[in-house]
Design a protein that fits this description.
Length: 289
């Protein structure tokens, strides 16, 4: 499933048992091309050089194995589980810029909770685009979940309020809220997000249990900018990385976790409801082939 991440890096190292100057240069370049930031790429190369000098290699997969181990060690402390509230409803706000996969991830999450026997309500909080509401309703039908929606242009805070009200009345276990693809440069949109967050807090007596930031694995270094902006707005509690099935990169994750200590929780591996898995540092590292 996760095969071919950092593919060029794998190619550079394959069959090489020694880390000569040429390999080091190629390795650094390949890491940066796979969206690893320059400082993190240099750290990785230094670490590999140290390990190689200590002779921790047995065969010609040796360097590649060292890289996998190192990536695993970097990411393992970041593995995290979705927060589930002790008292229902668990509220999950799904955040991220347009096109990263928020709506699809919501459908996948709803599908997963339902298959675990939990009741789910979806709030169509992306009221910015009419298509977004329709798309969510189609998904709701597909995965068998009610979607609470208002018209395009409606106040997302009001949609959130309605959804929480309905959830309380019906004893729903999980409320998952879509949000607009707020360009982080547009302050009023971030303001709307904060308002939605306040409404959750007022209705449930605590901040949204999960403020899940969706990041497209193809995003590159901009992922860090996105994470910072959304974190400043309402505090991000977890990250879902989508489209890891369709990229040979994935290096942005290494830079992101070097910069910010936000748990990595989910991985999107396709466009179907079941294409969502828990983030696993081991799988990610072993995906480097
Ligand atoms: N290959 C792949 N495509 C995805 C994944 N998640 C979402 N997509 C696609 O990305 C596009 C944008 O997704 P959408 O959920 O509408 O993004 P939103 O604007 O953030 O709500 C759609 O074509 C989805 O099918 C994934 O994990 N893998
Ligand atoms: Mg959407």
């Amino acid at each position: 499933m996760l095969k071919g991440l950092l593919r060029r890096v794998g190619n550079v190292l394959r069959g090489r048992a020694t880390l000569d100057e040429e390999t080091i240069e190629d390795l650094e370049a390949a890491l940066v091309q796979a969206d690893v930031s320059v400082p993190v790429a240099m750290e990785i190369v230094d670490r590999l050089r140290d390990d190689a000098e200590r002779g921790r290699m047995t065969d010609d997969e040796g360097l590649l194995d060292l890289l996998r181990d190192h990536v695993y060690e970097r990411l393992a402390p970041c593995e995290g589980e979705l927060n589930i509230a002790p008292e229902p409803p668990t509220t999950i706000m799904v955040l991220g810029v347009n096109g990263v996969g928020k709506t699809t991830t919501i459908a996948k999450l709803a599908h997963r909770f339902k298959s675990e026997g939990r009741s789910v309500l979806i709030a169509a909080g992306d009221t910015f685009r009419a298509a977004a509401i329709e798309q969510l309703e189609v998904w709701g039908q597909r995965v068998g979940c009610e979607v609470i929606a208002q018209k395009m242009g409606a106040d997302p805070g009001a949609v959130m309020f309605d959804a929480l009200d309905a959830a309380r009345a019906r004893g729903i276990d999980v409320v998952i809220a879509d949000t607009a693809g707020r360009l982080h440069t547009k302050t009023n949109l971030m303001e709307e997000l904060r308002k939605m967050a306040r409404i959750v807090e007022r209705a449930t007596g605590r901040p949204a249990d999960e403020r899940l930031l969706v990041i497209d694995a193809n995003t590159g270094q901009n992922a860090i900018v996105q994470a910072r902006e959304f974190d400043q707005a309402i505090g991000v509690t977890g990250i879902a990385i989508t489209k890891l099935d369709s990229t040979a990169k994935g290096g942005a994750l290494l830079s992101l976790t070097a910069e910010m200590k936000i748990p990595l929780k989910l991985v999107g591996l396709g466009e179907k409801p079941e294409d969502l898995v828990r983030f696993s540092a081991r799988d990610f590292a072993d995906g480097i082939v």
